[in-house]
Amino acid sequence: MRMRKMKNLDPRMEKCAELRITSPESLKGNWRSLMPGCTALWVEVGCGKGKFTAETAELNPDVLLIAVERCREAMVVAMEKAQAMGLHNVFYIDMDVANMEEIFAPAEIDRLFINFPDPWPRKKNAKRRLTHRSFLNKYCHVVRPGGEFHFKTDNAPLFEYSLEEFDACGLEVKNLTRDLHKDGVVGVMTGYEEKFHALGTPINRCEVVCKPFLLPPEEKKPKEEETHE
After folding, report:
1. Where in the sequence numbering do the catalytic residues fall?
2. DSSP letters for 167-228
3. Cβ-Cβ contacts under 8 Å for 87 (sequence gap 6 or more)
4. How confident is the model at residue 6 (pLDDT cuts 50, 70, 90)?
5. Which of 62, 130, 66 is nearest to 98 (CA)?
6. Which one of 35, 51, 139, 175 has the lowest number of neighbouring Cβ atoms within 10 Å?
7. Which residues are within 8 A (CB) of 191 and not within 5 positions of it... i.e. 6 or more apart?
8. pLDDT digits (tens, 9 = 90+) for 126-176
């Protein structure tokens, strides 16, 4: 998420220090110690300004929710929202999703949320897409077998690409829809989602069941034939 630099970012972050995890590596394999007795550990990838995060945490008070966001300007807004709502079951990490396996132990997570990630439309940037097989492999290491990740996007080409990646990795897809809110709003919306739904943009969503798998090889582009004058 791109946001303007905040001159008062550090003081605002400090006021929300109780919700921010500054050394997440130290909690690897022991995240539930933040909320003993929680019924599940959920993780949201790229929480942005945190509307979905806060409302999901509020609706599920027995679940421990960890929100990941590498844009600190967005994350501080998300933390302030959760703090204002008096939530005690959500914490925030500013980190890159690519480092998930350094932060979470194998099979530690019960559910993962991937909401409206950057589509990286150019083919040469496909490996940056959060539903590329290399990222799927990471999710399936840290999410328990049988656990799920829930994926939403307004970008139809990204959704179709993602379905192909799920299939290539042998992952089961459930509750697939290409127009989630066709008959009325379903579930908690992100702020981004609300705007696009109001414009009539269909929202794609599916749930993917995690399991260990061998990383399928990348498709190789055919070599161009040499030409000789």
Report:
1. 118
2. HHTT-EEEEEES-TTTTS--SPPPHHHHHHHHTT---EEEEEE----PPPPPPPPPPPPP--
3. 54, 57, 58
4. confident
5. 130
6. 175
7. 48, 49, 51, 52
8. 999 999 999 999 999 999 999 999 999 999 999 999 999 999 999 999 999
